[in-house]
Amino acid sequence: FDYRIPLIGRDSCGFEEGTGGMSAIEHALQMNGLPISVYAPETVGCVAVDVLGRCAAATSTGGLMNKMNGRIGDSPLIGAGTYASDLCAVSATGEGEAIIRATLARDVSALMEYKGMGVKEAVDWAIRERLEEGKGGLIAVSSNGDVTFGFNCVGMFRGCANEDGIFEVGVW
Fold this sequence. Notes:
Largest sheet: 4 strands, antiparallel
GO molecular function, one term: asparaginase activity
CATH topology: Glutamine Phosphoribosylpyrophosphate, subunit 1, domain 1
Shape: globular
Organism: Nymphaea colorata
Oligomer: single chain
Number of domains: 1
EC number: 3.4.19.5
Catalytic activity: Cleavage of a beta-linked Asp residue from the N-terminus of a polypeptide
Keywords: Autocatalytic cleavage, Hydrolase, Protease
């Protein structure tokens, strides 16, 4: 039972609709058939590059409901959910076990290093060839400032900003 998914005819606190808890607007906003509020405690990832081309990545997990005791997700595993090198920085989100099996973040850097791919090509290849369908996505930045993302699930919340004042936000 996931306490974040409201019961039919009830709000998130178990009250009858309209008496408290979630508003009608929140019920109308859905992703994967569930209220958008279910996705509130999600992964937050950040990739950055400075003026000298030094890359950094950070990933904070939103956790997993009813996880097995002792389970460690992909976020703290360098190379799986988070990775930075001289070439790029990568942060992943999605089903941790699938991301761990793919060593997804490290693969992007390895594709750039060993196959000479650009960051966009490496991200697209890693998502298409290494990550199981519907299991997640990632954001990445190259050492020369190219920013990209990729995902193979319904949506992935993301944003981007640069020194020129360009801001982008996306879900689908």
